[in-house]
Design a protein that fits this description.
By secondary structure, the protein is an all-alpha fold. Helix content is 67%, strand content 0%. The chain has 11 helices and no strands. It is globular. Bound molecules: pyrroloquinoline quinone. Pyrroloquinoline quinone (PQQ) binds next to helix 9.
Length: 256
C-alpha cells in the first residue's frame, strides 16, 4: 500500500473550511471595487448612480429566477421550504411587493422612469451575460456548489450598512423610502446565510466537495466584480456599449 498521503485530499476541518470560505470574501468581495468606493463616498454623478440602478436591476430581477431554478432541482421538501423564503423576500405579496418593488422605488427616487428600469431595456449586454452565467451556474452545478455560490451574502450586510450610511450622507435622493431595499436586506441576508452556511459545512465533507464549494463562492465574487468593471468602463470611462441606456434617457419629469 502506498504510504504517501496526499494532504491536499484530506478533508478540511469544519473550522478550516469556514475560514477558507470567509477568506474568499476578504480577498475578492466587491466591497473592494473602486465603483463602490466612488458610490459610497458621494463621488458618483447622478448619471453614474442611474446607470448603477439600471444595471443592478438585472441582478435583482434575476435572483428569484435563479432561486426558482435551484428549487426546480431540489428533491427535499424541507430544503425547498426554507429556500423558497428567498423568492418571497424579493417578490413579496400582491399588496406589499418585496425587494423588487423596493428596488423600483429606488429607481424612481434617483429620477428614472421605473417602467423603463423594469423593462430591462437599458441594461448593458455585459451585465446580462454575467447575470445569466450566475443563473446557469445555479441551474447546472451540483447542489452544494449551487448553494455555496449564494454565500457572498455573508459579506453583504457590511456593504449594505456602508451603502445606507454613504447614500444618506452624500445624496439628496436618499431617504427612508429609497434606501428601504438595503434596510430589508440587513435582516434577510443573515437569515439566508445562517441556514446555507450550516448546510454547506455539514454536506460538503469530502475535500473535493469542499474545494468545489470554495470555487463556487469564488466564481460568484467574479460575477459581482465583473458587473462593476463593465459599469465603470461604460459610465465612468464613457464607453457606453450599443443599445445600452444613455445618460439623459428615461428620466422622470422632475429629476432630483
Ligand atoms: O448590494 C450588494 O452588494 C449585494 C450583494 C449580494 C451578494 O453578495 O451576492 C446580494 C445582494 N446585494 C442582494 O441584495 C441580494 O438580494 C442577494 C441575493 C444573493 C444571492 O446570491 O442569492 N446575493 C445577493
Amino acid at each position: 500500500m502506498n504510504s504517501i498521503v496526499n494532504h491536499n485530499e484530506l478533508p478540511l476541518s469544519r473550522a478550516e473550511f469556514e475560514a477558507r470560505l470567509r477568506q474568499v470574501g476578504v480577498e475578492r468581495y466587491h466591497d473592494k471595487h473602486r465603483f463602490h468606493d466612488r458610490l459610497h463616498s458621494g463621488g458618483c454623478t447622478m448619471d453614474e448612480v442611474q446607470a448603477w440602478v439600471i444595471n443592478r436591476w438585472q441582478y435583482q430581477c434575476s435572483i428569484p429566477m435563479k432561486d426558482a431554478a435551484f428549487l426546480s432541482r431540489c428533491h427535499d421538501p424541507d430544503l425547498r421550504r426554507v429556500w423558497r423564503s428567498r423568492i418571497e423576500d424579493h417578490d413579496g405579496g400582491v399588496e406589499d411587493g418585496g425587494g423588487i418593488r423596493r428596488w423600483l422605488r429606488l429607481a424612481e427616487g434617483v429620477g428614472l422612469d421605473p417602467a423603463y428600469v423594469a423593462s430591462g431595456r437599458g441594461v448593458m449586454p455585459a451585465t446580462r451575460f454575467i447575470v445569466d452565467a450566475y443563473i446557469r451556474f445555479v441551474r447546472d452545478e451540483p447542489p452544494v456548489a449551487a448553494m455555496a455560490s449564494s454565500l457572498t451574502e455573508m459579506f453583504a450586510p457590511a456593504i449594505h450598512t456602508r451603502r445606507i450610511d454613504g447614500l444618506l450622507e452624500h445624496y439628496d435622493f436618499a431617504d427612508r423610502e429609497t434606501i428601504a431595499y438595503f434596510r430589508h436586506r440587513l435582516t434577510e441576508a443573515p437569515k439566508d446565510v445562517r441556514f446555507t452556511l450550516d448546510w454547506v459545512l455539514n454536506h460538503a465533507v469530502t475535500r473535493p466537495d469542499q474545494e468545489a464549494a470554495i470555487a463556487a463562492l469564488t466564481f460568484k465574487t467574479d460575477v459581482l466584480w465583473a458587473q462593476l468593471d463593465a459599469l465603470w468602463s461604460a459610465y465612468v470611462d464613457g464607453n457606453v456599449p450599443p443599445g445600452a441606456w444613455k445618460p439623459g434617457e428615461a428620466q422622470l419629469a422632475a429629476r432630483p
